[in-house]
Amino acid sequence: MYRYDRTDQQLIDERVAQYRDQMTRHLAGELSADELRPLRLQNGLYIQRHGPMLRIAIPYGMLAAAQLRKLAEISRRYDRGIGHLTTRQNMQLNWPQFEETPEILGELASVEMHAVQTSGNCIRNITSDHFAGVAADELTDPRPYCELLRQWSTFHPEFAFLPRKFKIAVNAAAQDRAVIRAHDIGLDLVRGDDGELGFRVFVGGGLGRTPILGKLVRDFLPRRHLLSYLDAILRLYNRYGRRDNLYKARIKILVQALGIEEFGRQVEAEWSELRDGPTTVPDAEFARLAAHFAPPAWQTLPAEDPAHTALISTDKAFANWVRRCVHPHKTPGYAAVTLSLKAPGVAPGDISDVQMIAVAELAERFSFGEARVSHEQNLVLADVRQSDLHAVWQIARSQRLATANIGLLTDMICCPGGDLCSLANARSIPIAAAVNEKFDDLDYLYDIGDLSLNISGCMNSCGHHHVANIGILGVDKNDEEWYQITIGGQQGNAATIGKVIGPSFYAMEVPEVIAALIDVYVEQRTASERFIDTLQRIGIEPFKTRAYAGRDRRRTAKVEHRETEVVSA
Amino acid sequence: MPRIISNHCIVEDHWQVLTLAADETPATVTLPAAPVLLPLAVWLARRDEIIARYPQPGVWLDSDEGPEALAGDTDRFAVIAVNFPKFTDGRSYSSARLLRERYRYSGEIRAIGDVLQDQLFYMRRCGINAYALRADKDPEKALAGLTVFSDSYQAAADQPLPAFRRHATQEPA
Ligand code: SF4
């Protein structure tokens, strides 16, 4: 993975010093709360329902074992021994002390980490495919491009005070696993006609209260122009994005107002002034960055390990885990493993300090010392030998990291919601817990098969509910928690925004409603259909009808979304 | 006399900023005796008169006014100020870069408005070289804000080459 050079380390150290000074001035009364606010946000520090929350950056999800150990130590020493992984592949600490945050950032800097631009109206953490570098369907490794963008976006002097936050994701695989069209800019690495690498550029996607998929603004951008082209987009957005209304300030609103053709024309006009300048990226720089992501020393192994095959046929629990949590690897004899952070009874995406240490050890012993965070809030060991899978499973199981539910209904993406987040309309974690209780039979979950269920506590949509097969959104009605349900959303190449099925439900009803939706699928499916396939074939109506059958809807007045300040993971 | 930061030094400053009162219009407002930073609208309405009257006029751009309106005229100005109505309004960073990098303006670009220590580094990178701090702030203390970082990744007005063109072959830390 990427290792800092002297400049990287120096800049991060200087950032810590800057932040420490800002906090000192604030505590001395020289920097008001309002003046500090954007500064602390751009260092990841929110003030939440119960106090501060610190969001630590994990650039494109990559973690070294030493970094995991440091995170474990920090969470134990400065927090309550729990970290929460987010849909931007970051980690949140929910209980740090305000005054101790400079110390935490100092600790992070010692392992080449930081919390830079994990919040605020600036360019946020770049996200990508958690199987980068090992996926068989990948054109090339996206991480060198992510790192290029990390450096370009870090302390970009022109774009630190944008109208709103700005999210960028990069995909380089045949199957998009980074939801690129749900981003302000989505980059799809492709090969041009003459074999040159470049990008299809999507712009103006985003979830939140106005969910829209990004639109194609450029069919092919040679990779050397990446930074100047993004400078052009960001400059247009910085200058002309709306600043009068927080809810209309994302770039998607500007793109909508101008229309994608006119927006694209203005980008080209601005870019024509910038292209071929010094920001043009030379091949040598791509090569330098790519060297940081050189493949580890994979051994030459048979494609199939006989002992492994034997264990699968004799050990059902292991076989189930392999089926759901082990993924193909482009190198024979290797596999990628997802460590599920979706065990029943645990808030989705939460990981304890002890588990972090365990994952660090697993990574060191079995996966070249590295792990990744997926945007689905799980951890991935990307380079495990097939012959080691059983050992990995046993250790992971002893740490409750081997719930065999990846891609199933209980592998929920779930935001912290009303238990922690001050913007929430409703709680999310208890809904996840209730769904887990209702669907506690693994065999039934396997029978239901691939299905995504995501939960957000408010319209900010940190839980990506819009792109879930079943999406649950917390809404506030007369100070009561209600939940609106959408169905038919999906991630991937066929990314779709789900449709609302009707009036919202009381918290207690949610598990039953989900069961009703699943029943329709189970009754109607053909042998090979997933939930989403059946839904697309028979339409939303039968699901809707069943969800409301026998329910008293008199309590469901029109829902008012509470106007809240907007944050998101 | 108010003090500002100019090129890393604290200096006494004599420029006034003219703003239009509710009952004034660009065409009729009384032009004070020099030196004054005029609103863009006044410059546009009375260009010839201003050129005749001031040997080296000054102008200020609000955050929603781009430097495009000054194209071709930038060299006439001793000072072009860019306003930050709120420090969280980042539009004037783009204006400053455009003035320096596209319109090749080499005179003083001054930040006015909600100008605070913790934004000075980014302002400097965008080509701003004078800073009229908000009245309640001490420019002496704010000076430190100009030198928070010793290097930068991106090309900008202060550094035409991105880091990757300057030190691509460093040793790892
Ligand atoms: S979706 Fe809403 S409730 Fe959930 S974390 Fe985001 S802002 Fe908070």
Task: Provide a descriptive summary of the structure in words.
Chain B: This is DUF934 domain-containing protein. Chain B: InterPro entries: UCP030820. Chain B: It comes from Candidatus Accumulibacter affinis. Chain A: InterPro entries: NIR_SIR_4Fe-4S, NiRdtase/SiRdtase_haem-b_fer, Nit/Sulf_reduc_fer-like_dom_sf, NO2/SO3_Rdtase_4Fe4S_dom, NO2/SO3_Rdtase_4Fe4S_sf. Chain A: This is Nitrite/sulfite reductase. Chain A: Residues 48-110, 327-396 form the Nitrite/Sulfite reductase ferredoxin-like domain. The complex is a heterodimer of chains A (569) and B (173). Chain A has 569 residues and is an alpha+beta fold. Chain A has 4 domains: 6-109, Sulfite Reductase Hemoprotein, domain 2; 127-291, 2-Layer Sandwich (Sulfite Reductase Hemoprotein, domain 1); 306-398, Sulfite Reductase Hemoprotein, domain 2 (Alpha-Beta Complex), CATH 3.90.480.20; 415-568, Sulfite Reductase Hemoprotein, domain 1, CATH 3.30.413.10. Chain A has helices at 6-27, 33-41, 65-78, 101-109, 143-153, 226-240, 251-258, 260-274, 283-292, 306-314, 316-325, 353-366, 389-398, 429-438, 442-448, 510-524, 531-538, 541-548, and strands at 45-48, 51-56, 62-64, 82-85, 91-93, 127-128, 168-171, 185-191, 197-203, 215-222, 326-328, 334-339, 350-352, 370-373, 379-385, 413-414, 453-456, 470-477, 480-487, 499-500, 505-506. In chain A, the strands form 4 sheets. In chain A, strands 16, 17, 18, 19, 20 and 21 form a 6-stranded mixed sheet that branches. A 5-stranded antiparallel sheet of chain A has the order 1-2-5-4-13. In chain A, strand 4 (82-85) and strand 5 (91-93) form a beta hairpin. In chain A, helix 3 (65-78) packs antiparallel against helix 12 (353-366) and helix 10 (306-314) packs across helix 11. The longest helix of chain A has 22 residues, at 6-27. Chain A is globular, with a radius of gyration of 23 Å. The model of chain A is unreliable at 556-569 (pLDDT under 50). Chain B is α/β, with parallel strands linked by helices. Chain B has a single domain (3-168), classed as Rossmann fold (3-Layer(aba) Sandwich). Chain B is built from 6 helices and 8 strands. Chain B has helices at residues 40-45, 47-53, 91-102, 120-125, 139-142, 163-166; strands at residues 3-6, 9-12, 16-17, 36-39, 58-61, 79-84, 108-113, 130-131. Chain B has an 8-stranded mixed sheet with strand order 2-1-8-7-6-5-4-3. In chain B, helix 3 links the parallel strand 6 (79-84) and strand 7 (108-113). Classes of the chains: A alpha+beta (569), B alpha/beta (173). The interface between A and B is large, with 47 and 42 residues. The structure holds iron/sulfur cluster. Iron/sulfur cluster binds at residues 415-417, 421, 423-424, 456-458, 460-463, 567-568 of chain A.
